[in-house]
Amino acid sequence: MSNHARPEQNTNASAREADRAGQVSDQVCGQSYGQVWEHSLGPQDFLLSSEARESVRDLHDPLFARAWEEQGFAEAQGLPGRAVAALQARLLVRLFERLGCLGTEKRQGFGSLFYRTLLAPYQSSLMQLQQSCRQIWETMLEAPGTVALDESEFVLLAPVRKILATLPLTSGRDIAGDYRRFLCTSQDEVARIVTLTTSGSTGAAKRLAFSVRDLERTRKFFAAGMAQIVGNGDVLLVCLPGAERPDGVADLLNRGLSPLGVTVHALPSAASDQVVQETIAKLSPTSLVLAPRQLQTLLHIFPDKAPGRLRSFLVSADWCDHSLLQQAQKNWQVATLDHYGITETCFGCALECRGKTGYHIRHADVLCEIIDPLTGEILPPGEVGELVLTTLRQEVMPLVRYRTGDAASLRIDRCNCTSPLSRIDRLLGRFAPGTRDIIHPKKGERCHVPL
Ligand SMILES: [Zn+2]
């Protein structure tokens, strides 16, 4: 089956046209969430397809871009595993070039001072990784028929993952202090710096820096993801603390969703539960973006019926007990989405689809690994370990093999929405430092994970 002949049941002609025109989000513009929910959007790779096109352009690699076009990937409604594997392999090598660890930028001394120093002893691993990545994209360029179209990107990237596993891990401790050691661009390119307060009183705060283009990519991801539950005429209230700041989550949602006809409001950071309640009564939003704690409060205030016109919400910013989501779906009769993102990934990372079989990853921006939190050994899909992220396209402050502390596993079975791409399974909590114990945020309990 050629990529052009993907199953028709999930799409329609106008959606395909919109996708070809690069207006992926527009296909749901004007539909209520109910219609969107009813008419499947097709593989959730739509979250990826516009980003993937953009990332190919970002590579400034005419040969790769032409091969991509010739393979029909540029027009693909959803992207087969082979396309994603080739793209991630290309982006990974480009990342190490940008960091100053490979290629011409290494010779010229550009890149991140931190990673150039950290990875200096790993030159042979990096060369192997470059070679392995080249093999993947040469397969795409020269022998397109040799790999099954829908083969999981996880399978195809396995050799690359193996080499990646020989490189050192990084953590929040590394990005505490002077963030300039991490910069791959001049400071003029920095559009926003986010300082993360730490729970301990000792130690420097973590700082993350983003460019206009880093923020723009997140804006597009938010718009495509939220278009699953909002459309023209909807009123969205963003309740997340801190989201109202310039270039914050509410700002990015506003810029992403206004063109779709969604009105976006943000609550001030220190809003009390009463203010949240009053604002909901005043604005009567049809959708919310909120933290799990805020959802819990609202479910307490409105136990049986959704407040006002509420038809959907997205929960983010913290681990969410899924019984809360189920309670809201049942009692409020609303559509729900759970999002996983951390500031280090420029807020957005992975999002549920209506299939509810895990979080679809921004494959054009993030490479996920699961490791044993004690030994650092890579764990296969399905096994619970610590989620480790590599931000493939961040311009200013990319992170390589960054330990999140979050406990999860990867899924490579096909999603209910038909996507063959790997996903992050439900987040289970956080690993207690230096242990394999997962702290369950709700009960504060630890549960030992047999690894
Ligand atoms: Zn899905």
TrEMBL record:
Pfam families reported for this sequence: AMP-binding
InterPro entries xrefs: AMP-dep_synth/lig_dom, ANL_N_sf
Superkingdom field: Bacteria
Polar residues composition bias: residue spans: 1-14
Region (Disordered): 1-23
Residue ranges of every copy of the AMP-dependent synthetase/ligase domain listed in the record: 196-389
Classification via PANTHER family: BLR5969 PROTEIN (PTHR43845)
Record's protein name: AMP-binding protein
Organism of provenance: Candidatus Desulfovibrio intestinipullorum
